[in-house]
Design goal:
The chain has 401 residues and is α+β, with helices and mostly antiparallel strands. It contains 11 helices and 18 strands. 28% of the residues lie in helices and 23% in strands.
Amino acid sequence: MAQAGAANIQDGVTIDLRNLNQSSVSTDRSTVTLGPGLRWGQVYSMLAAYDLAVPGGRSAQVGVGGYLLGGGSSYFIDHGFGCDNVVAYEVVLASGVVLNVTAEAHEDLFQGLKGGSSNFGIVTSFTLRTFGLKGIWGGNIFYQAEPTVDQQLRAFHEFSGNNEYDVNAAVQMSISFSPGFGIVFVNQPFYALPQVNPAALHPFTNIQPQLGNQTALNNLAAFAIANGALSPDGARQMTWALSFENDLRTLRALYAAFNASVASIAHVAGISWSLTLEPIPKAFLRASARLGRNMLDVPTNPRGNSLVLCDSSFTWTNENDTAVVRSAGLKLLADISKSARQLGTLTRWVDVNHADYTQDPIASYGSANQAFLRDLSRRYDPTQVFQRAVPGGFKVGPKRR
């Protein structure tokens, strides 16, 4: 998470896991074991040699460890959250004890690590189920906003709510502002088979006019690299997350709020102001339930046949602009949340991997799961090292103000 005190810490101790970058595919190729220091682009490149894949981060530079501990949505609808595919963890507790955690050994911790974030120990390896993947189709398509807004929002709503959802198809829709381009839409259709422009994604590929179209047959690693290029390293960043039921009125209210927010940040040096919408269709939620229990407590039967995960990415150059950007960013979150709440579509789930530090994603898992995680923390970390001595990240106890 791109949060001060979590990704790193000023005048504190950072435990750098980059050198825990091991990987190994099992003899029968049914699982792969990954170190937390790997990034998903490296994982996809390694697995491509075996014609295999796992559900992982959408951008090449996303790290394995944080993504999987926070749940992790991916391109692969029929495989649920990334955490649903973990079959074993190696965990170092605060006491120094090393545990091999599976559904049979330390079952409670196995469940808690599926969304419980960095609250119980340092995970030094993850073993995931693999699946076959020979090639994919997709890429970025760019559009000026104003001529296409209605087409974009209708396409997203209809695709997400399709009663016959094609589980090989996925999409991300980004609404972005930068001073040089104004407001643009960047759609990223994805198909988990080497099939050019499949019918399931025509609602997006048929939208005109297009400023540019980078779709092509490709491999997963190259696709993730291209996605990551839209978020270059080196800038200050703010992210937040919310979720709502698939609803065209809510999508229109979201766009109106985004459009209204631009004036407050347009003068900021190096500003890039973006929201990304991702469908979480019922097929994805069914796959997640089929693969076992996680901690996220995401609604399984949303109206509109889908949830929508909305996350922000606001980047800028100068520290002096931080207060302006954060104020505008939090106002946009509040405005969208208010509209969704009034329309009856706002849902409780907050994605821990994109949440702002003013949010409480662990509480969004529901009181029963939060209580379970709190008890788990006391059981495996009785001196509460990861609650008290590690200030960054999201804790399982009551939110500290």
